[in-house]
Specification:
The chain is mostly helical. The protein contains 14 helices and no strands. It catalyses: heme b + (2E,6E)-farnesyl diphosphate + H2O = Fe(II)-heme o + diphosphate.
Length: about 325
């Protein structure tokens, strides 16, 4: 007996696959971290009292801008993506999406992002989001990625723009605290990305991309990671002193997380060629940024500030009473 099929089944599967392909072009896992840093900046800027509509619009606009930048990255890198086993089956190198379609998609995302941010937030946040797209493509993807071992260091500035977008959306300007958050993400990027590069350096070597582990080796890369990880601790504390944008709760969280990050990278330095250890550092770097941003948000809440103030008063009374 012939099996009956629903007339629209193949068409529905095709549409679903196409949607999934376009979604994959935006690299959604990368976008999540960008949104976390954006949200943290908004919470700190607004002292824990952010308008819900503004948050939704800013995060949506930021996600669209990041998706546009990632799509352009996929479009430009489709030649090397075809060679690397890890990326060969992406929508562009596999031929499921044509280059012109990806370009139109990226432009559409950028236009919607700019319009949304300029309308609901302000022009500064919209322009910053567009500058992030430009920096990611022109500085990192087209210029540095295939020409310098410092590609991820200098190019990391593009990934540090989302906190500026969040801060500008709330305040309409960029204070020193906003730039401190930019610096945190900027310094965090090398010890976050280089472990991944250590894990897949054979792929990068195959296509001639001069990532640090490929050119300078695992040992040198691990040592440079330690430099940036140690530098990250005082950088993360700038929000506490001298800027006073965050308080003791965030400061304590930053110190603990920074110590754990240094320990992880120190362990990698003992066995730089250990891919399992590199994977562990990479995963922890993601957790570090998520928890650090959560610490910023927690510290900014009025409830937290009130509890800290009350605790300080009780401590003073105990000290004076003694």
């Amino acid at each position: 007996m012939q099996r009956l099929t629903w007339p629209g089944t193949n068409w529905q599967e095709s549409v679903t696959q196409t949607i999934a392909d376009y979604y994959q072009l935006t690299k959604p896992r990368l976008i999540l971290l960008f949104l976390i840093t954006t949200a943290a900046a908004m919470w700190v800027a607004a002292k824990g009292q952010v308008d819900g509509v503004l948050v939704l619009a800013t995060l949506t606009g930021g996600a669209l801008a990041a998706g546009s930048a990632n799509t352009i990255n996929c479009l430009y890198d489709r030649d090397i993506d075809y060679v690397m086993e890890r990326t060969r089956h992406r929508p562009l190198p596999s031929g499921r999406i044509q280059p012109w379609q990806a370009l139109v998609f990226a432009i559409a995302l950028a236009i919607i992002s700019f319009t949304l941010l300029a309308t609901v937030a302000n022009l500064l946040s919209a322009c910053l989001a567009m500058s992030g797209i430009a920096a990611y493509f022109f500085v990192y993807t087209a210029w540095l990625k295939r020409s310098s071992t410092q590609n991820i260091v200098i190019g990391g500035a593009a990934g540090a723009i989302p906190p500026l977008v969040g801060w500008a959306a709330v305040t309409g300007d960029l204070s020193l605290a906003a730039w401190a958050m930019f610096a945190i993400v900027f310094v965090w990027t090398p010890p976050h990305f280089w472990p991944l590069a250590m894990m897949i350096q054979e792929d990068y070597a195959k296509v001639g991309v001069p990532m640090m582990p490929v050119v300078d080796g695992d040992d040198s890369t691990a040592k440079q990671m330690m430099f940036y990880t140690v530098l990250l601790v005082p950088t993360s504390l700038l929000l506490v002193y001298p800027l006073h944008a965050s308080g003791g709760v965030y400061g304590a969280i930053a110190l603990v997380l920074g110590g754990m990050f240094i320990q992880k990278v120190w362990q990698l330095n003992q066995s730089p060629a250990d891919k399992t250890m590199a994977r562990s550092v990479f995963k922890f770097s993601i957790l570090y940024m998520m928890l650090l941003c959560a610490g910023m948000g927690l510290d900014s809440l009025p409830l937290t500030q009130n509890l800290v103030a009350q605790g300080s008063q009780v401590l003073q009374m105990l000290v004076l009473g003694a």
